[in-house]
């Protein structure tokens, strides 16, 4: 009788005599291997809990053409990147920074940033909606790193 390379499980030929003991031995080997995988999976899950302090969040919004640009998140935002889906404009916002820069493909301008526990609001001193990522009817993509849920 042949056996598999990894776990030594039975591999019968047409002429082999099949015994219940062979099946029981194979089942014991499979059970032990699965128990080992469960143990490894539990250890990896426990270790993964200590990796990083954030999750990736992605969303879109449509610009209103006036006022401040505000985005709310399910958890505390740590870093936010906003970009136009058809407009050449983007902003990178770091948690607790009072200003950031917005780039429209040709020029960059400073924008004012204010933070709440679960949100961020952006205004541009000249009310330039392009740099604020708030042109009326335009879609913007929001990609953020948000704090892990407690």
Describe the structure.
This protein is of the alpha+beta class. The chain has 2 domains: 2-48; 54-147, Sandwich (Immunoglobulin-like), CATH 2.60.40. The chain is built from 1 helix and 10 strands, in the order E-E-H-E-E-E-E-E-E-E-E. The strands form 2 sheets. Strands 3-10-5-6-7-8-9-4 form an 8-stranded antiparallel sheet, with no helix packed on it. Strands 1-2 form a two-stranded antiparallel ribbon. A hairpin with a 4-residue loop joins strand 7 (99-103) and strand 8. The longest helix has 29 residues, at 20-48. The two termini are 55 Å apart. The mean pLDDT is 90.
**End-to-end distance:** 55 Å
Helix content: 10-25%
CATH class identity of the largest domain: Mainly Beta
Estimate the strand proportion.
35-45%
Instruction: Tell me the major beta sheet.
Output: 8 strands, antiparallel
Order of helices and strands: EEHEEEEEEEE
Main attributes?
150 residues, 1 helix, Immunoglobulin-like, elongated, two-stranded antiparallel sheet, alpha+beta, 10 strands
